[in-house]
Amino acid sequence: MRPDHLTEPRWVRGILLFLGLAFLTLFLFVPLAAVFTEAFRKGWQTYLAAITEPDALSAIRLTLWVAAISLPLNLLFGVAAAWAITKFQFRGKQFLITLIDLPFSVSPVVAGLIFVLLFGSQGWFGPWLQEHDLKIVYAVPGVILATLFVTFPFVARELIPLMQAQGSEEEQAALTLGATGWQIFWRITLPNIKWGLLYGAILANARAMGEFGAVSVVSGQVRGLTNTMTLHVEILYNEYQFSAAFAVASLLALLALVTLVVKNFIEWRNQRLLAQGEQPLEVSPLAAQQPQAA
Hints:
Layout: H1 10-39, H2 44-52, H3 54-87, H4 93-105, H5 108-119, H6 126-131, H7 140-151, H8 153-166, H9 169-176, H10 181-210, H11 213-219, H12 229-238, H13 242-275, H14 285-288, H15 290-293
Helix pairs in contact: 1-13, 2-13, 3-7, 3-8, 3-10, 3-12, 5-7, 5-11, 7-10, 7-11, 8-10, 9-10, 10-13, 12-13
GO cellular component, one term: plasma membrane
Keywords: Cell inner membrane, Cell membrane, Membrane, Sulfate transport, Transmembrane, Transmembrane helix, Transport
GO molecular function, one term: ABC-type sulfate transporter activity
């Protein structure tokens, strides 16, 4: 038991706990409850009709497709960028780090306008795209590009501090034992970063499914073609179809809750391994052989 002078008074802890619960209730639980209450206000039949309506199904499919396309690209870029930044010294390294952080400081709406400036009919590449019958802005490729722009920092930003903390001793030891670059990556680097990689993927996927600002600019909000779930909710709400809007919004809320559960499970697993005195990140068999080889 900790000494009394190291603990806060009971009333202070009670006030802090009350304030925390009140904040969560007001800004998390009440909005979530309101979304599901409004979604089911007119019954299951109205709810099912809202989420199975053709435009809603098209929005759901597009949202899942965009997330499915952007996620592997985010993983590829995040691993490559983190590997380059943490394992090598090269000119322009700080500039690359700045570029990775750029989407955090630029408004998504501004990002969407940049894509319109580049690929719109009056944009820099607009005449060339029209000449070759290619369409990016106000089409699905524009939605994918905008989603990629706002999500690509998440994986890299999770991996860079993790790989910096781990250092490169294991990779160097494997290299002296004759391992190739791919062997080092698959048997040492990837197992050591797998939880950070998964954590970053979860965050990137959640942002991809919930993005609104950049997507709303480049999509043109063509109903049934370029509308994601977030855009479909806005259109339904503006048309005073409140039950349908909240029904689709409830699906987004469910996806967010699933993401939160998976994220908390990963954190709980790592904390449990640490509490048991184990290493939360798996050590590769090749690295485990290093003392014997020495």
